[in-house]
Specification:
The protein is mainly beta. It has one domain.
Amino acid sequence: MLVADVRRAGRYYPLGRDVMNMEPCLGAMRSVIIKAQHNCRSDNVNYARMKHVPIKHEYCVVFEKAA
C-alpha cells in the first residue's frame, strides 16, 4: 500500500503511521519502504514563510494476508 503523510491548513496528518497501526485489520506487516517524492506539484511552492519542512517522502507498506 502506497501512502503519504499530508499537511492541510498547517496541520500535519501522519497517514503513514495510521496505516501501519492497521496491521491487525490488513494482515502481518512485512516491510516498510520509504520512497522519496520527485516532480510533485508542491515542488513549485515557495516555502520561505512556512515554519515546517515540506513533506518529501511517502511509504510503501507491505502486508501479508493471513491464510
